[in-house]
Q: What sequence folds into this?
């Protein structure tokens, strides 16, 4: 299903009228490079390269073409990945402890206050925390289960007693809403600026310890 979606979006519009025997390796490479440059995405071209190999393997086996030319498609260069700022060195534990102290002594409202207190506890991506739903919280078993946005997989997060206390208190204020951290936004929950702004208001330098860095 995923591969077919990629073909519908990117491949069929270009190759729909070309017999597979006439497709050349350079055609495939040019398409992948165009996708990467035009849409500034890198994972989709990488997956499409493997899709091409599978398609041509099928085609060769059934004699629709003679060779699996997709195997000759070169790998696209990936951009240099830079980690988001985060305090990770053991020798800086006191500095990180001060960050936690500032988060737990914030002056925000109950919604943002709870969000920034949970951020270093749950190891979730900021978007996943911001979009937390009450229906995904199991208070009885102290678990949070949700679908990860990046990889479309289910993730199960055990909740500490401290996290449960925070969530039970928050429930008194936002339990009637779908989202744990509701806001008057298009999505219906707090946005990234709400979260990063609340952390900066605590006196935490997000250039040293970013929201995503937690």
A:
């Amino acid at each position: 299903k995923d591969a077919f979606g990629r073909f519908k979006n990117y491949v069929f519009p270009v190759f729909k009228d070309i017999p597979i025997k006439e497709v050349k390796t350079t055609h495939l490479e040019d398409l992948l490079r165009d996708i990467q440059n035009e849409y500034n995405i890198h994972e989709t071209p990488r997956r499409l390269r493997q899709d091409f190999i599978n398609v041509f393997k099928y085609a060769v086996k059934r004699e629709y073409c003679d060779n699996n030319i997709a195997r000759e498609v070169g790998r696209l260069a990936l951009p240099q990945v830079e980690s988001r700022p985060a305090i990770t060195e053991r020798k800086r534990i006191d500095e990180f402890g001060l960050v936690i102290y500032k988060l737990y002594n914030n002056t925000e409202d109950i919604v943002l206050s709870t969000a920034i207190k949970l951020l270093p506890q749950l190891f979730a991506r900021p978007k996943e925390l911001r979009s937390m739903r009450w229906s995904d919280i199991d208070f009885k078993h102290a678990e949070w289960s949700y679908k990860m946005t990046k990889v479309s997989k289910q993730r199960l997060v055990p909740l500490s007693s401290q996290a449960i206390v925070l969530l039970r208190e928050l429930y008194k204020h936002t339990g009637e809403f779908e989202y744990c951290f509701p806001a008057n936004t298009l999505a219906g929950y707090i946005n990234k600026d709400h979260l990063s702004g609340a952390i900066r208001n605590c006196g935490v330098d997000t250039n040293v310890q970013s929201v995503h860095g937690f």
